[in-house]
Structure formats: C-alpha cells, structure tokens
Write a structure and sequence with these properties.
256 residues, alpha+beta, elongated
Amino acid sequence: LSLPTPPARLPYVPRLPPMALLGKVTATTFALERPLCVFDGHADASDSVWLAVAFANASAAFRNPQSRAEVPPYQQLLTARSYMTLETAAAAYSCSCSAPSPPVLRVGGDTACRDQGRHDPCNGPLPSPGPYRVKFLLMGCRGPKAETRWSEPILLSTAASPSTIDPAPARRGSTVVVIASILASLGAVLATAVLGALGATVWGSLCHRGLGIDAFIRRSYRTHHIPPGPPLPLSPGCGCSHPGLCHPAPQPPAPC
C-alpha cells in the first residue's frame, strides 16, 4: 500500500477583506476574502474547496481528512477544537469563473444548522471570541490535493459587561451640561448689559443734538402774526346796548 500524496502547499494566506465592510468582525462571525485564482492548476471540475476553522492554539494539531466522511463537523468544535465548513465547488474560485458570487465569505453566518444533527457541513455561529485560525483545503475524490497556509489569529468582538461600565462619564456629562447652562445665562446677562449701554449712548447722543424731550419742551410755539381789527363803529346816541363801548352823546351849546 502506498501512502497518500501530501497536498501541495500554496503560499496564499487567508485574510479579512481589506476594504471597509460593515460587520467585518462580530461577536459570532467574521468575513474572509474569497480565494480567487488560488487553486488554478491544481483543481479539477469535480473537486471542492473547504474551509478549516480551528482555535488558534489548536491549529498545529489539525489533521487533514482523507475523505469527505472524515470531515470534522461544526458540532464537535468545542471538543475537537476544529471543524470544516463552506464546501464550495473549486470552479467557483477559478479566475475564469464568470458566475456572479458574493464578494466575501461569512464564517459563522448560518444560525439554522446550529442545533440540528444533519451531516452536511454547518457554518454555525462561533461559540467564543477565539482567537481562530483558518485555511482553505482543496479536496478531490482521493483526498486532499492542495492547501493554503493558516491565517493570522482572528479575534471576534466582545460585548462589555454591565459591571465593567464606568458611570463616571455620565457624571462628567452632567457637569458639562451644568457648566454650559451657566455660561449660557452669563451670556444672556452680558448681552442685556451691552444692549442697555448701547441704548443709553444713543439716547444721550440724541439729547445732545437737541432731539430729546427737553429740547422739545424748551421750544416756543409761535402763531402767525394777526393785525388788530378795525375799531367798532359808534352807535348814534346812547341807545347802544353796550354802554362800555358807546361814546357820550354830543351836548347842545349853552345859551348865551
């Protein structure tokens, strides 16, 4: 019996996508760059590419399965410290592939298979922050044909515990609000004082120019000159009804 041929060692290193991506690393998943053109020259039409996922401290102990039946399942991750997932036809990663495909691979994005005991490869959520290492493995009908290097350790996001949250920032925020309120009040007082001083200056200028109330009071009001009317005519005799306005009636001459 001949020993199986060891898989070809490819220089490609799996990595996170270099571009900005929402949810590139979460608490249970992470995104990977697709290994395009990596297996050209090694893959046949019937071959498939798998992703091996292992805890970073267990990647050195990982052994490539010799057949699909030996692929370690997701359900044994916590005990075996590794599993394989994302089985994909090798042609999907070929340079000549014209079929549209997702720009990245999402590891841990299938929540439906987490609690199911089915045998097809599960891409369930990762149970802990890790860190993890991954590599791609090209599998043919006679076993592994080529493999990439292991990635750098990938650490997932972790949520902060409520007990570790420092309430001091909230107190500092309240202090800032109080200070801002005080400054706003001082600004309003200062604006009122400035407007008052400006009004007093304008009013004094108007009074200095003779446009104030005192100048208005001091001004005299003169009507147009009206000449005196002609004297009233004298009434004949003393039958005047206005004695004060009548002249005494002429007296007859005294007798000789």
